[in-house]
Amino acid sequence: MIIIRGFHPKQMTMEDKKMTPSHEHHILIVDDEVNIANALKRIFRNRGYRIHTALNGAEGLVCLEANKESISLIISDQRMPGMSGSEFLEQAKRIRPEIIRILLTGYSDVAAIIDAVNRGEIHRFFTKPWNDEQLLAQVEQALEQYELKKENQRLQDLVKNQNKQLYELGIKQKNIIDAKTQELEKKNQALNKSFMSTIRLLVTFVDVINPSLGSYIKQTAELAKRVARDCNVQGDALRDIEIAGLLHDVGLLGLPVELISKDESEMTEGEAKFFREHVTISLFLIQSVEKLKPASDTVLYHHEHYDGSGAPNGLKAEAIPLGARIIAAAGDYCKIVNLWPEDRNRIIKKVRLAFGPEMIKGIEDYPPAAMLGEIGERALLSGINTKYDPEIISKLIKYIREDRQHRESRITRQVRMHSLESGMVIAKDLRTMDGKLLLSKDIILSPYMIGVIMRLSRARLIEDTMEIVVQQEGS
């Protein structure tokens, strides 16, 4: 086993200190390929972490036993001689259940990922080759969450012990208990916020792999959340609907792009059967994580129809969970505006096949984006009381039209990258030359973001201008 010491925190720059955890963490890297292990060392050695390495699972277990009180996170390769990564992580979990477990695997190694989820209950997985910045960001976020859990447990133990003392002594110091309870609640809120940030980051990875699918998922979740709030859904229930919106179609990632863009009416019997399996895949992934389970019913039933003609159980009207009714409508609209073709002639052909010629009347000459938005609205209205809950459609269309008015009213301009200023708002998604998402629209630029954008622009990885929001009309 090898231990690599990073720089002392006092040697770091101010930027590095911002990302430094509250105490020194130890990371165990297990990989039979020395060059892979060395590459991972280079990523983490300057961040103040202590690095342990092992060349196989058995050696990794010995290292973990010797350092189980100090190691906070494990990064393990999946394919190793003697013991696979999932087998190693399963045994590591028995030694120290709370340790963060990350798996490195091949892009298409779905069976290995499922095995690791079931056996080792991994917290993250990364495909080879990985992106250094994304891996580092995930490790830092995971360690922040690890610290929050530790602090959460400490506070729970502290509150429990104090309650016992108060009971035994007959002392009723309610203000002290209330203060500790509020502190614990703040920690729980921070933990939930970190959890949601992790899910949103995973959806960003979807956006990198398939930009149209990523946009569809994010818009569905945002609209569903707004409609749910309008239906007086609050707290954890509101969060669960947003989670369901983000993950309900994550199973589509394994399907061909051309199949994802099809309406079910266009599919062959074999394609339709294959397509419907994405719900099972999405549900499996959600139910494998304890905190995601409350969203599973919404995912399971989002293909039910209001008149009882849907699947899987033929539920009708209010028997369908509210979240599922919302996502069914929001998802169908967002699929049309994000996943349908952008060519006018192909749109017209697709509409006639899916809905009939009446659906396109009066909008044949619209620009493609406007045409898709109008078709999406008409599809929702035509499905009232058959596919969709009429109350949900009323609220959903209200927000769709608000968003359209917002887009049409704001004034934007092109700004060269060297003229960017902190506080400017991005008007359109910032993507690399090959279409990978870097920053989503409506993000407020920070000095750090501007520095990264300038470097990417100089390297000709992105355009040299960006569309910036100047102001909202009338503001």
Order of SSEs:
EHEHEHEHEHEHHHHHHHHHHHEEEEHE
Widest β-sheet, arrangement of strands: 1-3-2-4-5-6
General form: globular
- Taken together, the total number of domains comes to 4
- Our Rg estimate from Cα atoms comes to 25 Å
Structural class: alpha/beta
Q: Mean of the pLDDT scores? A: 82
Q: What's the name of the CATH homologous superfamily of the largest domain?
A: Hypothetical protein af1432
> Mind summarizing the main beta sheet?
6 strands, mixed
Q: What's the arrangement of secondary structure elements?
A:
Layout: E1 2-5, H1 14-19, E2 26-30, H2 34-44, E3 50-54, H3 57-66, E4 71-77, H4 85-95, E5 100-106, H5 110-119, E6 124-128, H6 132-169, H7 174-209, H8 211-230, H9 235-247, H10 257-260, H11 269-287, H12 296-300, H13 322-339, H14 344-354, H15 368-382, H16 390-409, E7 410-416, E8 425-426, E9 430-431, E10 437-439, H17 447-458, E11 465-472
Helix pairs in contact: 3-4, 4-5, 6-7, 7-8, 7-9, 8-9, 8-13, 8-16, 13-15
Characterization of the model:
The protein is α/β, with parallel strands linked by helices. It folds into 4 domains: 129 residues, Response regulator (Rossmann fold, 3-Layer(aba) Sandwich), CATH 3.40.50.2300; 56 residues, no CATH class; 178 residues, Orthogonal Bundle (Hypothetical protein af1432), CATH 1.10.3210; 63 residues, Molybdopterin biosynthesis moea protein, domain 2, CATH 3.90.105. The chain has 17 helices and 11 strands. Helix 4 packs parallel to helix 5 and helix 7 packs parallel to helix 9. It is globular. The chain starts with a strand and ends with a strand.
